[in-house]
Amino acid sequence: MKKILATALLVCTMVSPQAMAAKGSRGLQHEYDAGAPKESRWPDLFAETPNYRAFGQAVIGGRGEKFRWKMGPMFYRGRLTPNSVKVFVIGQEGAQDENVSNRSFTGSTGTRMQRFLNYLGIDRSYLFMNTFVYTITGQYSLFGEDRENARKVKEQKRLLWLAQNEDSIVVKHRHELFDYMLETNRGTLALVIGVGTAGKDSAANWLSAHGAKCSNSKLTRSYCRGTGALAGVVAIGVKHPGAASARNGGEAAGIALRKDFQKKANIVRDLIESKGEGYLPLDPGMSRGFSEDFKYGYASVPHRDFAFGTNWRMGNWATTSNRRGSDTIQVFASPGSYNNEKNPDLRYDDPRSASLNKKPVEMAKGDLPFESPKSKQKRRQYDAGPGADFGKVMLEFFNQDFWEAGVTGNKAFGPQGVYRGRLDSARVLILADQMSHTDMFSGRALTGAAGQRLQSLLKAAGQTDSYAILRTLPVDTMDLSVDHVTRIALQPSVDNARINLIDEVLAYEQTEVVITIGPVAEAALEGWDLGVQVINLDIADPALKHVAGYRSALKQLKSLGLKSDSKPTWSYNGTPSIIPRKDLPAYTRWWMGTSGDLAARSFEWLDGERVDNPNYYKVYAPKWNNSWRAKTSDLTSAEKASLRDFTKTGL
Question: Residue 175 half-sphere exposure, CB side, CA atoms within 13 Å?
Answer without folding.
Answer: 19
